[in-house]
């Protein structure tokens, strides 16, 4: 059986027989003349089209993602420092309330908050007050960020 290219009347002279597609035998594909061949399945970029657009979008998005990641890590570092300072102040106030000597309270607070912590111990009326301050480590230290905490406790009777 012979068929002609349906696209043009001039192709009738160069008509080629029909052949079946290999994967699907029920489909029939025209074999067209060289003037009307279908393009290959490989996609060719249009001139001045979107070639490299994904790379450009990735190059624009990557610095934003890295900036957000660094910001999250800096906030996490500052939060951790604040929690450590608050724990040191609380432990120091509890130790003073139980009657520990001042040098032991300072060493306890420095052990919890870190070596660069400044510890202040005082009395406010019938209460003891411990204040702990420590600079936030890392890049936030360049802008002079300090974590501070204060804890107050009532001294135990007989201490």
TrEMBL record:
InterPro entries: Rv3655c/TadE, TadE-like_dom. Signal peptide: none annotated. Keywords: Membrane, Transmembrane, Transmembrane helix. Residues 52-94 form the TadE-like domain. The chain crosses the membrane at residues 58-80. The keyword ATP-binding does not apply. NCBIfam families: TadE_Rv3655c. This is TadE-like protein.
